[in-house]
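Name: Putative DNA binding protein
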Amino acid sequence: MRKVILRWKTISLYGATEISEILNLCERMEILGHLAINEKSVTQLAEIKLKKGKSIDDFSDLENFKVIETHEENEDGVLVSLLCTHPLAISAIELSNIHIHPPYGISEEKGMELRISGLSKSVSRFIRLIRMVLPPDNISVQTFQKEDNGSVWESILTERQIEVLKHATRKGFYSMDRSVTLKQLADEMNMARSTYGEHIRRAEVEIMNKVMKDLE
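Structure predicted for Putative DNA binding protein:
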């Protein structure tokens, strides 16, 4: 089992037509989760920070994206359900034995980062494919066996998920008699409640998957 982190610099993303069009519309697009997956598309829960003068409806003008529903909008951005038929997304769906870990996304400031895990051969096939379509600037390979000094959680969870979990735990969210709410926690971290809750939920899923593997 392997986990791979693929990273692209912003300047490299402008070489891909549709990704450059996304960056022309927004400062940041973060995929928080996958709501539905089929052979031809993936429905994503996305938080999008639009550039001044741009509208969320502009995303439906892109070849491989369509806004299905707008859920809420605040200072963090617009939370939407987004239908994606981009070749990279379809390739990841079609390849068996790999998993793409949300959250992931595109940022005008930081570029793009994608985390995948799966059987070694399947991961290698995906990397070969993505090198032909959009060569990453950096590829970091990790294995689930490297668990020294508790680093297993850093290889499974994203930095944001760890940050949110630590904050929730410190505030007593996982106490038997908890009184704190997700809304209060989200406000303390200047995040939308839905965004904070999605980070929590995705982190819990990854943790339980790891626990179940250890128990097998």
